[in-house]
Design brief:
The protein contains four helices and two strands. It is mainly alpha-helical and 139 residues long. The chain has a two-stranded antiparallel ribbon.
Length: 139
């Protein structure tokens, strides 16, 4: 039986091709972070070097502003949904970019759920702090 010998020249050539492929992938990934993307999205490089395409943070800030304005216009008309816009939706939209940053900059369900939980905990702490002075005055 004949086994082809591993020619050192072809081994060097294969190593060189693998290095070239690796270098091209690195260049392409660096350029992907610098390429402009369509408006609601942005492409960023995370702290560990991954490239992530996500919704822009400014989109959430504008959506929070719209939620607050919508809630303020609905409240005087005795529409109960105005309170939902002001007390829940607006703060969640403001907190989401910060929570997303803490989760490595990637969009997903976990940062969204965490933003809602943090918003509810903060709201509870604020209401609890406002309730203490009322109890003292009643006594």
């Amino acid at each position: 039986m004949f086994f082809p010998r591993d020619d050192p020249k072809t081994r060097r050539q294969k190593d060189f091709e693998a290095q070239c492929r690796q270098a091209m992938l690195e260049v392409m990934s660096r350029n992907a972070a610098n390429r402009p993307t369509a408006w609601p999205y942005e492409t960023i490089r995370t702290l560990n070097g991954d490239i992530v395409r996500r919704l822009r943070s400014s989109l959430f800030c504008w959506a929070a502003l719209v939620a607050f304005v919508t809630g303020m216009t609905l409240l005087p008309r005795d529409v109960a949904d105005g309170g939902i816009f002001i007390l829940t939706l607006g703060p969640c939209l403001l907190l989401y970019p910060l929570i997303r940053f803490l989760f490595g900059g990637k969009d997903g369900v976990v940062p969204a759920v965490t933003a809602v939980i943090v918003e509810e905990v903060l709201k509870h702490q604020i209401l609890k702090g406002l309730e203490k002075p009322r109890r003292r005055r009643r006594r």
